[in-house]
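[scheduler] slot 2 assigned
[scheduler] job type: sequence-to-structure, two independent chains
[scheduler] chain ordering preserved from manifest
[runner] begin chain α
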Amino acid sequence: MKFLNLMRKHFLLKRAQKSAYFFRFYEDVDLNKKVKETTFIVFDCEATDLKPKKARLLSIGAVKVKNLELELSSSFYRLVKESEVKAAEIHGITKEDLEKYGSPPEEVIKDFLLYIKGSVLVGFYMKFDISLIEKYSLNIFNYPITNYKIDVFNLYKGSYLGQKSLEEMANEFGFSVKGRHIAIDDAYTTALIFLKLIYPYREEKLKNIPLFL
């Protein structure tokens, strides 16, 4: 797995360096740092479809975890102004919301890439979220997501082979869940679970936890 990460890192950096925004967005993470000294960004997205190729990004919510403490004062939440979006059902975001409060995709993605610079990304079943954001970052800035990532479920599962919803896992740890399918609320819930799961690894080096690229 470490070899695959090294190969993937090499590939991503070669691709990212072709972007005119490389030095603006990129900052490496020292894998020899301890977990407790690392900045993590826990994030979630809402979209129009469950398939990244078809999906339109509606919102990004993220919270920062620094020194294993949640920094709510520096949280990130943005709506994306998308002209082709119809009224939403699950997430409750309407076309009117996006028109009134949303920002253009290029502005939201730029701000998010700056927000996550030099951090490790954290999510819950995050493959979809990463694929969606990277679709935009490549189209707009020719820049792939180069951050190391960790999925909360990979920390949790151990020998567990099934699947669990975010709500089920939160309930297991005694956290109440509010505002499901609102990106910033889901990011906050994910962060609480992450802090619970990562704490036993606090003295470990980053390279010893299940990161991927």
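[runner] end chain α
[runner] begin chain β
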Amino acid sequence: MIETPQHRQTGRLTVRQITSRAYRVPLNFTLGTSVRTLKVVPLVLVDVQTEEGPVGRSYVFGYTDGGARAIAACLAEAEEVLRGHRSTPHGLADLLTKRFKLFGITGAVRMALSAFDMAMWDAPAISAGLPLATMLGSNRTFMPAYDSRGLGLMPTDDLARQTEQLLELGLGALKLRLGYPTLAEDLAALKTVRKHAPEDVSIMVDYNQALTTAEAIRRGKALQQEDILWLEEPIRHDNYRGNASIARNLDLPVQIGENFNGPEAMADAIALEASDHVMPDIARIGGITGWMQAAGIAAGHGIEMSSHLMPELSVHALCASPTAHWIEYVDWADPILEQPVCIEKRGIRVPEQPGFGISWSEEKLRHLEMI
């Protein structure tokens, strides 16, 4: 089908085919957290072919091999529902939500629908010849970024070496994972990184849900003396009342949000004052459609909003968010992309190419293990 001026004005596209494939991607930095140690990550690559011509692309972190397979299975079912439908991303998101509602829009289902939604935003931006951030109404083309590739749970000598390695990239902040058996070990790790990082490089810490509420308050009161940007996910992510108690008892900002299941969950957390900042994951919040709804909620409450993983996609959404704060940088997608994310002056630059500005490197993919 030939693209028409009417299509360019309305942004309506017709779904022809949804394809996905998953790969095990080795990490440049082994990442040890209080949950598990990551050496390889499963990434699910998604292509949506439209009848009008543009191909929308996205990718998501599948967490486990089984998770990646489940996401792919949900996308295959979504194709059966959507093939031949001509609509906007909002309309298609509504259709899929109704289809999967009884099954539950969470976990692999949410991530599959988010991946499709992102691809269906990518396609009209490509058609319009605009970076997605621009099509979303953003005047920003740059976001300050922090390096989240390493600094897992490890001996202090290794932390010192890795801090120096990460600093070579030149970003303005580093994320340190904590959750050692004792507070003394947490403080030793933090002091090690602080000692080897310049004064103008900020540090945020992430417990990956390792603590109890009382222990988080105890450790937080010690950590807030150490000049850090935020305390991330100290306890179970959906214990909003517990997180609210921590936030009330600390001067140090509390950060949660990577596990928000859609903008509704973020609204619930904010209503309970569960954190000082929020950081949705674009694959769990509902893709671009869900992200922009969440961005409005954050803006309405004057809460700073950061991103979680997938910087190539998140930079567009974050630039269009009124209370944009920090973008999390990881290089996990470098082995699947023709062009890695653009690092510039302590942050990430929105690419000038239309859409997300991503394309798969088939040459690189040949060297990866498929799931």
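[runner] end chain β
[qc] chain β: The CA atoms of residues 187 and 289 lie 40 Å apart.
[scheduler] slot 2 released
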